[in-house]
Amino acid sequence: MSGGPGGPGGPGGPAGRGGPGRAGGAAYDVVDLIRAKRDGAALPGDSVAWLIDSYTHGRVADEQMAAYLMAVVWRGMTDEELDRWTAAMIASGDRLDLTGLTRPTVDKHSTGGVGDKVSLILTPLVAACGAAVPQLSGRGLGHTGGTLDKMEAIPGWRADLDAARIRAVLADVGGVICAAGPGLVPADRRLYALRDVTGTVESIPLIASSIMSKKIAEGTSALVLDVKVGTGAFMTSLDDAHELARAMVRLGTRAGVRTEALLTAMDAPLGRTAGNGPEVAEAVATLRGGGPADLVEITVALARAMLDLVGLGAAGPDPAPDPAQVLASGAAYPVWRAMVTAQGGDPDAALPAPAFTRIVPAPASGHLTRLDARAVGVAAWRLGAGRARKEDPVSASAGLRWFAAVGEEVRAGAPLFELHSDDEATFPRALAALDGAVTIGTTPPAAAPLVLAHVR
Ligand code: URA
């Protein structure tokens, strides 16, 4: 069905069917592109770039792009199409220039998990080991929290920095966590908002291009992806997680960014807290040399992979101190303080306290054999830590802590969860989310690995 007048390779469609194409490029009829994608036909060379450009500039309507995205959910994309789609997304906005810094740049991206406060610890840790970490992040939507929401629990801390300030903080401190400005991949901003309300988030090529376009545009020279697998993650199957990791590693590598991925378990939440302020407090405790074992293990594995990629790993030409020792010694904590201060935050200020707390006791004695990550994430969200729509506010103090991790012993009647909220009315729905979230058995479960695979 492709080709011919009015076909995907033909002249531009009439107004309302996509309008004229880019100056100097081919023009397409968007309805023909939707039909071609729906039917699994090949798409002509620059039609994908035309579609992204036309959508970003309002020449293709939301309903047309939504139909196209749904066709992608069903049909997928060829590697070539995915390359073109990602390149067009990057070309929709600015690219940050991080060349010329004395330290090598390396970043991490997580596909999102419950209790995942790793970026807050990893950024100062890898900076303390000698690399520069440009951690451009987003806000959370749904049951997994966003890194910026967590950092904004710190009194005074500001997420918005311009490109010159990002470079300056990286040069002075070595790590920066900030918002990806509106000029970085504006196509993703529109596409993600549309995907969110049209049931088209769950597509491997759409997720891969959304994540990688932003990471490539951010200008890092190397990138480690933390692809979460399990009940609390986007990817619940190991096969899908492998496919997503391979797609992202390929996109990064082709764009000249040294990219690797770790697949990590997300059936149970990470650490002992979920929620913005509670996670900051746990991250600080970890940076001071404490912290729960699972959080330390994942953070150190990611730090080693990042340092390896930029030649600062144990086997590299210029080995940095081992991140496990740096973290345990508390040597990354001064870097955290400098990062917070550089963005107007007060690292010594008390984090906001919740107006209400509620203890949930363990229903039985025994070993905790399951703690469902998704249920914990939904509970934190219902307590006020997350947002349903991107313009909603989030609470800095809402969330929960749990007093035992999977494998540990619990005693009937002793505290199992502590819920935090600014609004007592949120407790019943949070408690409903936690109903059935734990299993308590008579014997401890077999130890399960946290790092499931390394994709290079
Ligand atoms: N995170 C993103 O940035 N994009 C997606 O599509 C999914 C997760």
Helix/strand/pairing class, anyone? alpha/beta
- Ligands and ions found: uracil
The beta-strand count equals 13
Helix fraction, binned, reads 25-40%
Ends distance: 38 Å
Sheet with most strands = 4 strands, mixed
Mean model confidence by pLDDT: 92
Low-confidence region ranges: 1-16, 19-24
* Main sheet strand line-up: 1-4-5-13
* Quaternary structure of the protein: single chain
Strand content: 5-15%
Radius of gyration: 23 Å
- The secondary-structure element order is HHHHEHEHHEHHEHEEHHHHEEHEEEHEE
What are the main properties of this structure?
single chain; 456 residues; alpha/beta; 4-stranded mixed sheet; 4-stranded antiparallel sheet; 16 helices; 15% strand; globular; disordered N terminus; binds uracil
Q: Would you give an account of this structure?
A:
This protein is α/β, with parallel strands linked by helices. 40% of the residues lie in helices and 15% in strands. The chain contains 16 helices and 13 strands. The radius of gyration is 23 Å and the shape is globular. 53% of the residues are buried. Uracil binds at residues 192, 201, 206-207, 210-211.
